[in-house]
Amino acid sequence: MNLVAKTYAGLEDLLVAELEALGAKDIVKIRRGVTFTGDTKLLYKCNYLLRCATRVLINMKVSEIADEQALYDTVYKIPWEEYFTVKESFSVDAVVVSDVFTHSQYVALKTKDAIVDRFRRKYHKRPNVQRIEPDVKINIYIFQNTLTISLDSSGESLHRRNYKIHQVTAPLSEVLAAAMLQLAGYTGEQDLLDPMCGSGTLGTEAFMLKRNIPAAYFRTHFCFKQWIHYRPEIWEQVVEEAQQEILEPNGGVIICRDKQLSSIRKTEQNFEPFEEFGGLDQVITKRKDFLRTEADQPYLIIINPPYDDKIEVDDILGFYQEIGTRLKHKYVGSTAWMLSSHFDALKFVGLATSQRIELFNGALPVKYMKYELYQGSKKEDKPTNEL
Ligand SMILES: C[S@@+](CC[C@H](N)C(=O)[O-])C[C@H]1O[C@@H](n2cnc3c(N)ncnc32)[C@H](O)[C@@H]1O
Fold it and tell me: Best exposed site among 80, 273, 339, 363 by fewest CB in 10 Å?
C-alpha cells in the first residue's frame, strides 16, 4: 500500500525516524507528512505506535483531472464497496489548492455524490453521510489538476491518546509534547522538570516514552476497524507484540509543577490511567511558583509558559525576563528548553540560545529555544535581538 503519515509542520524529520524504526519502505518526506509503503501490519503499527503522527492515510488514487465531471468519474470508478458497506457512515474532507477547482465544499459534495451513486446503482441502497465521528473518512486533495484520493485509517486525530481526563486553558497537543521531548533529547534517563505543567501533557508523554508505552495504548477507535478488510488477528498481534516491549520502571524522575493547585490536580488525574504500569512514584507533582524555586541538581527543563494570548499575563516581557534570570542563577548545570509564540518576550529571556527550532502550536507559529545553563550564560545586555 502507498501510505501517508501526517504531522505538524516542523516534525517531519522525527516522523521519518519513527517510520524507519518501524521498518517502513520508500520513505519520502513531504510538507507536514511522510509518504512510505507498507502492508496491513505496518498500517496498524503506525496507528498504534507513532508518537509524532496525527493520522495515517492510504493513497488510493492519484490522477490528473480537467474538470468536475472528471472528478466525479474518477471517484465513481473506485470500488468503494470493497472497503465499506451501505451500513457504514462516511464523510469526505476536501482540500483544494487549484486555479481550476476553487470550492473545496463543492469538491467534497461531488465526491459524496459519486460514492453514493455507485452504491445506489449496485445495491439500490446508499451509505449515510455523517460529519461527526463517521465510520469511514475519505480525503480529497487537489493540487492544480492533480487529484489524490485517500482513505483515513485513523479517524480522530492520533494526538487524542484517550488518557486525558482533564484539560486546562492552553494544553499542548500530545503529538507536539512527544516531539518536544524527543527534540530536547529526552531518553527517559534524565531527571525531567516541567515547571509550568498545566494539565501535565509533557509529563504523561515523557512517562509513555520512557516506559515505551504505545502512543495509542488507551485508544480503541480507529477507522480501519470499520473496513471490510479489517484483520482483527493482525491488530491483536500488533497490540500484543508492542505490549511485550513495555519497559519496567527505569531512569530518571518526572517532575511536574505549576503555580496553580487546580493544574496540579488535573495533572495528577491525567496520570491515573497509568497506574496499571507501576512506577508512578517516579512522577513528582507539586504546586510551586517557578519564580521562587531553585534546583537541587541539574535537570532537563522544558517550559511551556503562557504566551499572553489564551492565558493573559500582566507584564509578559518582565515575566519572561524573570524566567531567564531564575534559570541563570538558580538552575546552573541544567539544560532548559522553552516553547513560545511570543517572540518579543522570548528576547527578554536574555540567555544565549544553543538551538532554535521553528514549530507550530496549533495555528500559532512558535519557537522552541534551547538554553545551556552554565555560569555566565546570561547575556550582558538585554533584550537581545538574536532570534
Ligand atoms: C500554557 S500553560 C501549560 C500547558 C501545559 N503544557 C499542558 O499541556 O497542559 C502554562 C501554565 O503555566 C502556569 N504558570 C504561569 N506562571 C507560572 C509560574 N510563575 N510558576 C509556575 N507555573 C506558572 C500556568 O498556571 C499554566 O498552567
Answer: 363
Q: If you count DSSP H runs as helices and E runs as strands, how many of each does the chain have, helices first?
A: 10, 14
- Low pLDDT (below 70) residues in the chain: 375-387
Express each pLDDT in 124-142 by its tens digit. Answer: 999 999 988 899 999 999 9
Choose one of 169, 197, 205, 366 to mutate for the ligand 1 pocket test, by most ligand atoms within 8 angstroms of C-beta: 197
What is the pLDDT, as a whole number, of residue 168?
75
Question: What CA–CA distance (Å, rounded) separates 183 from 18?
Answer: 13
pLDDT of residue 382: 46
Is the four-CA dihedral 345, 351, 356, 359 of positive or negative sign?
negative
pLDDT number for residue 383: 45
pLDDT for the residue 172? 96
Asked whether the whole model's pTM tops 0.90, one would answer yes
Nearest CA to 336 among 349, 317, 345, 347? 349
Q: Which domains does the chain have, with CATH numbers?
A: 2-152 (3.30.2130.30), 174-215+230-372 (3.40.50.150)
pLDDT at 94: 95
Question: Cα separation of 218 and 203, whole Å?
Answer: 16
Q: Are 30 and 87 in contact (CB under 8 A)?
A: no
- Residue 144, all three cell numbers: 492544480
- What HEC string does 197-232 produce? CCCCHHHHHHHHHHHCCCCCCCCCCCHHHHCCCCCH
Q: Tell how strand 90-97 and strand 136-143 pair up.
A: parallel
Atom of ligand 1 nearest to the CA of 260: 25
Residue 135 has phi, psi (to 5 degrees) of -70, -40
Closest atom, ligand 1, to C-alpha of 170? 1
Report the distance separating Cα 115 and Cα 107, nearest Å: 13
